Amino acid sequence: MMKISLLIIISFIIGSIPFGVIIAKVRGVDLKKTGSGNIGATNVLRAMGKSSAVITLLGDMLKGTAAVAIGNYLSVGTVYEGLLGLSAILGHNFSLFLGFRGGKGVATSIGVLLIYSPKIAILTLIMWLVMVLVTRYSSLGAIVSFGLLPLNIYLLEDPQVKAIKLLIAAMITLLILVRHIENIGRLIKGTERKIGERA
Q1: Which of 32, 67, 113, 173 has the smallest CB count inside 10 Å?
Q2: Segments of the chain with pLDDT less than 70
Q3: Cβ atoms within 10 A of the Cβ of 72, count?
């Protein structure tokens, strides 16, 4: 358990790395005071354009991928791999380096799924992209694609690990929905910003 506890702490620290904020500081932008104030790729896109947004997206995804990959390499098992992934997502959402404030965890969650459940990760990403292309709302894409995550796990995951991964998926979905409560309110009111709108 000492090893697992250490890995969970390391995963949280990895997840806490605020790539969007770092990139913004390099370019002389205070991301937390720009646009929505979020540290993720969507707000980076609004504030600084496509190249910075892509770097942020990849960095945030890599955090989740790295956390689960470490667990996979050390053969900690399906349960603990999932917990390491959740720890990385929590690190992004409540960053150690930002006074326990952070982003919404979408890219980091995709990164977790890329190792934890690759085919579900691809399906979730496709669903997100389709929703964004159709509606131009990044938040709606996240809400729909991750809202359906547990169902996709239930329908498509290997039966031998389905129960465990379903529980982890439900936790990821809950984190995503909780972090998007304000977005849901703005979507209902029709005041949510569309992707690509400048800050």
Answers
A1: 32
A2: 196-199
A3: 16
What one-letter code names the amino acid at 170?
A: A
Sequence spans of domains, the chain? 2-189
pLDDT digits (tens, 9 = 90+) for 135-193: 999 999 999 999 999 999 999 999 999 999 999 999 999 999 999 999 999 999 999 98
Q: Which residue has the tokens 């050390």?
A: 74
Taking each helix axis from N to C terminus, what angle separates 2-16 and 50-73, rounded to the nearest 10 degrees?
180
Task: Return the residue matching tokens 């991928």.
Answer: 65
Amino acid residing at 139: S
Question: Do 153 and 117 touch, CB atoms closer than 8 A?
Answer: yes
CA pseudo-torsion sign 47, 51, 55, 61: positive
132, 155, 134, 138: which is closest to 193 by C-alpha? 138
Decide if 68 contacts 84 (C-beta within 8 A): yes
Query: Phi, psi at residue 30, to the nearest 5°?
Result: -90, 95
Token pair, residue 157, equals: 């995951």
- DSSP state, residue 39: -
DSSP 8-class letter at 148: T
Cβ contact 29:50 at 8 Å: no
